[in-house]
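Treating backbone geometry as a discrete language has practical consequences that deserve illustration. No coordinates are needed to read the tokens, only the vocabulary itself. For completeness, the protein is quoted in full, as a sequence line and a line of structure tokens:
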Amino acid sequence: MVRTVVIAPAETSSITMTGLFDVIGKADRAYGALRGRPGRDTTFDVRLASLDGQPVRHGERVTVNVDLAADEVHDVDLVVVPGLDDDLEPSLALNEGWAPWLARWHRAGAVVASSCSGAFLVAEAGLLDGRSATTHWLYGEALQRRHPAVRVTTERLLIDHGDVITSGGATTFLDLALYLVERFAGRERANAAARILLIDGARTSQLPYVSLGGVLHEHDDEAVRRAQHLIDRDLGGDLRVDALARAVGLSSRTLARRFVDSVGQTPQAYIQARRVDTARRLLETSDTPVDNIRRRVGYADATAFRRAFRHHAGLSPTDYRRRFGWPSGAVTGQNA
């Protein structure tokens, strides 16, 4: 039996914690259900813990009872860390008391697995220094700034170092639960869980879900912000760094340096990312042919467009539309 504790951070979205707790349990029971033995043939003994053993509040409406307090957790094999609240800094401050416990359980031999922004607590415990880790793509830069010794790789959906596992954002707790079943109980049980819970166990990347347009404007460099505005309003044009630099009163070298400092990318990389991001939105919400979209976002060469698109989105333009595009009736508000 895999002795498992799901920690219950305070004042987070309830689905991040209860979802992990319930899905691990349901995935574990799926094997017995398919074999006609519902409730039997289980592998995980899953308990829910709060710091003080008291019920945990989630907003105004949800209060969750727990099984034990942190100081009552002993001889545990697996500790699962759910995501924190979207307002990350206050949530991290409220829940940072978990970090010493995570470090202690890890030293005692437990595997520590995090979902979404739960990676921040694992990093606070010092378990990610010198290692690659993933989290929700929206929080990747914040995790890197706060913990520069961590190699943040947000395009990855899940990273397993053996003793520490991190997974991506939001509903990737489903993928994490399925992976934990496979890791601790075998592929046959994981396949049974995927069938019962209708989980696509083939996802490996967050790239198809990433959108950084608004996030990359959150800085204080006015010249870089003006250059970004010029880029964003003329993605189909011949965007040259030297022309952008002249337009904002800087040299090309200075603009490039300040771009990297403010945005974390070179101007050329930002242009490519914004072109692909715009192409993604058009593929999702319109029936415009791919070649027309390609030209609209500034790519004359179809091969270069496909290469850049796959690099940023993890799929070809055609496969991306097939997976994420809305039917024409849904886009226009008409009946299909």
Summary: Confidence is low (pLDDT under 50) at residues 329-336.
